[in-house]
Write a structure and sequence with these properties.
The chain is an alpha+beta fold and 206 residues long. It folds into two domains: 9-54; 57-188, ph1033 like fold (Roll), CATH 3.10.590. The chain contains seven helices and six strands; from the N terminus they run H-E-H-E-H-E-E-E-H-H-H-E-H. It has a six-stranded mixed sheet. Strand 4 and strand 5 form a beta hairpin.
């Protein structure tokens, strides 16, 4: 009777085990690389979508007498309001041009206070209200960290160079704001609450 070749069996078994672990390692690496690729693709898609939204976004300024509807009224109303009562045809045209996600400066007008005090976002595009007028719905984003007076904006060279419609047509209650002017006014005010910056207006960290 021949003795079993036990001396060769463990080596063969070890070889199969090594091949199995090697194959398993390749599968893990493949899954890891696939997950990373999918994550990078999702991140890229998200960034592209955010960039596209930012590029399409337009900026506006909404005037209101603080005695009729102030920033405090906006805040205490759950941050939302229907922006109506606009009679001027050019101002109505601006309302009709607003899209979801557009941002608007909330501007206190009047003889005693003319200043940008906060930022609201368009949450419902234009519609006809019960009185047959034009309206949009806006929601509070955040108060300016420092209110920006009209005189300060007029004295700023970068705001003037940007061609602010507020200066050209001061009687309009709804005016368009160029991106450069928007960014400069935000800079003058130290940004606004909800803009992704810290309390001091600096970019927030991870």
């Amino acid at each position: 009777m021949l003795a079993p070749k036990t001396s060769h069996f463990p080596a063969y078994k070890q070889s199969l085990l090594n091949e199995f672990h090697e194959h398993l390692s390749k599968i893990k690496n493949l899954n890891t690389n696939t997950n990373k690729s999918n994550l990078n693709t999702r991140n890229k898609s998200t960034m592209e979508a955010e960039t596209e939204t930012t590029q399409k976004r337009h900026y506006w300024l909404l005037k209101t007498e603080p005695g009729e509807w102030s920033w405090e009224d906006q805040s205490t109303n759950g941050g939302k309001s229907k922006w109506d009562g606009v009679k001027n045809k050019q101002a109505q045209k601006h309302l009709k041009s607003m899209k979801l996600g557009d941002l608007c400066f909330f501007y206190h007008s009047g003889s005693k206070c003319r200043r940008v005090v906060g930022v609201v976002e368009v949450v419902k595009e234009w519609y006809e209200d019960d009185d047959g007028g034009i309206a949009v719905d806006v929601a509070e984003v955040g108060e300016m960290r420092r209110w920006v007076d009209l005189a300060e904006m007029k004295a700023d060279e970068r705001v003037n160079v940007g061609g602010f419609e507020l200066f050209r047509q001061p009687r309009l209650s709804v005016v368009s704001v160029g991106k450069e002017v928007w960014e400069r006014v935000c800079e003058l005010g130290g940004g606004y609450v909800g803009d992704g910056r810290g309390e001091d207006g600096e970019e927030g960290g991870d």
